[in-house]
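Re: that chain you flagged

S.,

Sorry for the slow reply, it's been a week of failed gels. I finally had a moment to sit down with the sequence you sent. For the record, here it is as I used it:
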Amino acid sequence: MRVFIAGIMQGSRTDRDICGQSYREEIAQILRHHIPNVQVIDPLALHPNSVDYDPEQAKQTFLDMTDLAGQVDALVAYVPAASMGTAIEMWHAYQSQVPVYTISTMGDNWVVRSLSTRIFPDLAAFVTFVANGGLTVGDA
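Prediction finished late last night. Pasting the structure tokens below so you have them in one place:
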């Protein structure tokens, strides 16, 4: 099973820094602990210095990662605040019939509500779902 981790990176920041990213390792550990042979695809792990990319490299990386979001078995989106990149990854996954599992308190947000297969209010609820075998291929 291939799982893409989508989530806030720059959010609404106006500088070149990124928001806290510890959620990525937490989600990866949850998946690896409960799903045998899972392949976790994390854009930040693939491109750890992406905020320093020149405009063309940044554009190509964004397009490649968005495309990859539609080629997996499931997408887990971490959305504690609005994130344009995450929304586009969610959209691409949705359009490709990839189940989208969203961890967010923004369940009334149209993008979150419309594109998510399932919404979890926090990581603890997501852990329970995965631990109980909820995340499997073909959940759409």
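What I noticed first: The mean pLDDT is 87.

Talk soon,
D.
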